[in-house]
């Protein structure tokens, strides 16, 4: 198997859990050195332990709060200090929208969802681009959502943040393509993670059957595979896409 990640350094925010953890595994399987960054120290340390146990790859946990620009800058600085480079970044940390509908959503809910899911991605892109522009190369993938492409009932605030992530992705892709940096986004449909369990509880399996033409949720690894491909040289001509990985949900 061609391990294209060998000699490269990947950073995954939200790497303590769900899609981020499986993407950290996928980068490690591909041979990259992986930085797992998260606010959840125990979960992040566990991802690193699992990488070291399962894969022949280096891994480091960095505690970060993506809502805090200084914390994010320190994350990128520590990555480069430890591994000497930052080639690939997956800006994935996110929180669910606790409100049932935008008309009953609170200011607190809006502030939290926007701070983590939109502003957090902007902080990460700023710090990563600072390094990648100097290096003259790099690949960034942001985690948006199906709710970043279409209107999803009950996802008003979350969907506004995720549409914002798609906007940031496209603008940065155009601005920095000629300087050697590819920026893209993935737009997952329903994925079986702690976030969806917290959001939908007992309704989850019923929702999954109706969510897309496949009639099931994605496993986190199915999103991870798309992220690793978007970061790889196999996707060298792919710039500024918001790629649905949603079992066909947005095709109908
Ligand atoms: N699960 C889905 O169905 C689905 C669908 C579309 C998009 N997404 C997006 O995928 C991403 C990952 O979601 P998941 O389902 O794997 O959820 P998850 O809850 O399993 O993982 C999210 C991770 O982000 C971390 N995090 C939260 N706030 C943070 C902060 N301020 N700073 C640093 N880390 C923070 C959490 O600690 C957690 O480890 C999110 O951006 C989410 O919006 C998920």
From TrEMBL:
One Pfam family from the record: adh_short_C2
Coiled coil: none
Gene3D superfamilies given in the database record: NAD(P)-binding Rossmann-like Domain
Keyword line: Oxidoreductase
InterPro entries in UniProt: NAD(P)-bd_dom_sf, Sc_DH/Rdtase_CS, SDR_fam
UniProt key word Transferase: no
MF annotations from Gene Ontology: oxidoreductase activity
Family: Belongs to the short-chain dehydrogenases/reductases (SDR) family.
Protein name: Short-chain dehydrogenase/reductase SDR
Source organism phylogeny: Bacteria, Pseudomonadati, Pseudomonadota, Betaproteobacteria, Burkholderiales
